[in-house]
Amino acid sequence: MSIGKTSVYFVPRVLLVLALVGFPLQSQGVQTQSDRFQLEEATIADVHRAIQTGQLTCRGLVQAYIDRAKAYNGVSDRLVTRDGASIPASPGTVRAGSPLKFPTETVAISTLVPDFDQYAGPPIEFGRMEPTSSDPSVQQQYGMTVGTPNSGQINALGTLNLRGERSVTCKGDRDRRPSDGPLPAGSPAVCEEFRKQPDALERAAEGLQLANFSVFCNHVLTPPAMAEILGSPQTREFDTVPIDGIVGPGHVSCVIGSQPYELAAVKYRRPVVIAGFEPLDVMQSVLMLVNQLNEGRHEVENEYARAVTRGGNAKAQELIADVFELRRSFEWCGLGEIAYSAHKLKPKYERFDAEARYGIAYRQAPDNKACECGAILRGTKKPRECKVFGTVCTPENPLGSCMVSSEGACAAHYAYGRFREIAENTR
Ligand code: SF4
Question: What is the pLDDT of residue 10?
Answer without folding.
Answer: 31
